[in-house]
Amino acid sequence: MNLVDILDRQLIKVPLVATDKVSVIDELIDVLIDAKHLSPQQREGIVDAVRKREALGSTGIGHGVAIPHAKTDAVKQIRLVVGVSRIPIDFDAVDKEPVRIFFLVLAPLGESGPHVETLAAIARTCTSQVFRRLLEQSKSADQVYQLFME
After folding, report:
1. What pLDDT sits at residue 1?
2. What is the domain partition of the chain in residue ranges?
3. Which architecture characterizes domain 3-149 according to CATH?
4. pTM
5. DSSP character for 126?
6. 59, burial (CB in 10 Å: exposed 0-12, middle 13-18, buried 19+)
7. Segment 84-124, tens digit of pLDDT
8. Can you point out the beta strands (E) in the chain?
9. Nearest to 2 by CA among 106, 133, 124, 109
10. How big is the chain by its Cα radius of gyration, in Å?
11. Residues near 5 by beta carbon (within 8 Å), at least 6 away in sequence
C-alpha cells in the first residue's frame, strides 16, 4: 500500500487549531465532512466509531505521531485525513510524548485488509525522523502533500 494512492490534498490541514485530544479528533473529522460534503448523520457515525476505538487504547504510536482510526459504514472507501499541529498535544501516546502529526484513517465496515495496510504504511513512513521533522515544519497542506509525493 502506497499512501499517495489514498492521499487527498483536500484532506490535509496545516495547522490544526485544536489544543487537546478530543478536539483534534473532531477537527480531523470535520476536515473530511467539509471536503466530502458528508451528512450530520455520517459525522455522528464517524465520531462514535473513532471515540469507541480510542477508548480501547490510545492510537498515539510514539515519536510525536498519532493514528486515530476506525471502521464505519459512514465511508465507502478508505479515507486518510492528515493534520499537523504547531503545538505539541497530549494524546496519551505509548511513549508519553506529546503529538504534532495526526493521521485519521477511516475504513468501511468489513474491509480489514486495506485498513491494516494503511495503518502499517503510515507507521513505516513515520519511522523516519527526518520525514517527521519535515512534516512538523510544514507550513501548508500543499507542503505536506508534496512531501508524500516525493
Report:
1. 74
2. 3-149
3. 3-Layer(aba) Sandwich (3.40)
4. 0.97
5. T
6. buried
7. 999 999 999 999 999 999 999 999 998 888 899 999 999 99
8. 12-16, 60-62, 65-66, 69-71, 79-89, 99-107
9. 124
10. 14
11. none
